[in-house]
Fold this sequence. Notes:
Bound molecules: S-adenosylmethionine
Distance between the termini: 53 Å
Order of helices and strands: HEHEHEHEHEHEEHE
Amino acid sequence: xxxxxxxxxxxxxxxxxxxxxxxxxxxxxxxxxxxxxxxxxxxxxxxxxxxxxxxxxxxxxxxxxxxxxxxxxxxxxxxxxxxxxxxxxxxxxxxxxxxxxxxxxxxxxxxxxxxxxxxxxxxxxxxxxxxxxxxxxxxxxxxxxxxxxxxxxxxxxxxxxxxxxxxxxxxxxxxxxxxxxxxxxxxxxxxxxxxxxxxxxxxxxxxxxx
Length: 210
Ligand SMILES: C[S@@+](CC[C@H](N)C(=O)[O-])C[C@H]1O[C@@H](n2cnc3c(N)ncnc32)[C@H](O)[C@@H]1O
């Protein structure tokens, strides 16, 4: 019999609706969300920079979800931060509205061939869900080293009425969160250009009709 080494990967509760705030002891306060944390160092460094943060990671690869969730627990952050082995595209629609303060997507979608389109994470559907789960005044931060991807993200998020570019435009020079993702570190070491973008979630009153 073949044993599944990742059978005990942490999963979200099997319910139609899941409040991620309750999984990290945040009560009714919005939490930070990372989609695709990979090896997870951004979450750890973010905690070190912002010890009061409460965070959830959604990572489709069960191996990384297990490893990073255990790493957070081993550092004593387990009550405040968890990583779940989930496809963000299926998980976000189960979250209540306005439960996230900042959503991070660091270097999602590293592929650019046409046959990889169906794997894309930051699609118009996900942008709509992010607009629903991020609180008014909250933030969406996306960075990539694929220039074509950056242009596509600007279009996708730009078309989502819930978001407006951060004052001064969506692009920013530096990552303002006091923490770097593994791929970000490698891109910097390899001197690859990194495009960083940030949007603000409009309030309902500010959101133009679709
Ligand atoms: C290129 S890696 C970047 C990893 C990390 N964010 C970094 O910057 O080092 C993209 C990550 O997104 C994860 N991923 C891809 N599609 C996903 C999805 N639909 N839901 C959650 N995670 C996903 C991958 O497994 C991988 O860990």
